[in-house]
Amino acid sequence: MNYIRRAKKVKGSTGEVLLEFLEMRLDCLVFRLGFAPTIPAARQLVNHGHILVNTKVIDIPSYRGQRNDRIEIKNTKASRNLTQSQFYSQYSESKDFSLPNHLMFAPKGSQTGLIQDTVDRSNISLNVKERLVVEYYSRKI
Is 33 exposed, middle or buried (0-12, 13-18, 19+ CB in 10 A)? Predict the structure, then answer.
């Protein structure tokens, strides 16, 4: 509900702003970068302190990423084992993996992601009718 309230205050389509807020959450960014197989797994990586944002440990999954933030896996043996050996290398090298336009690896193939820009609705692959979501939550507020 907080996301709906914030999205209503921002100029533009409330539904699109809501999707942008959700896509820029740290757990979603970790998932989109291929550091975890699912969003819940990415959330757990963040909660357990395995993710750095601009060289600082951020353990809040709802942390909102900003342009030019560097997201990387903490350089400890446990963190690297959790991500690299289990999933990251297989997922990011597969043909099905495509990095969203607002993200990039810096340098290419590294375990450091960079937020280039804010997310655009056309880059979100969810098939969702935002208007219906906003209408539903607007009644609850």
Answer: buried
Name the pTM for this structure: 0.83
Residues 83-117 have pLDDT tens digits of 554 555 455 555 566 788 888 887 765 678 999 98
- Rounded to the nearest 5 degrees, what angle is found at the Cα of 31, between the Cα atoms of 27 and 34? 145
Q: Residue 31 belongs to a domain with what CATH number?
A: 3.10.290.10
Residue range(s) defining the domain that contains residue 27: 2-140
Query: How many CA atoms does the CB half-sphere of 130 hold within 13 Å?
Result: 19
What domain count does the chain have?
Answer: 1
Alpha-carbon gap, residue 60 to 64, rounded angstroms: 9
For the ranges 24-28, 31-35, 77-81, the lowest mean pLDDT is seen at 77-81
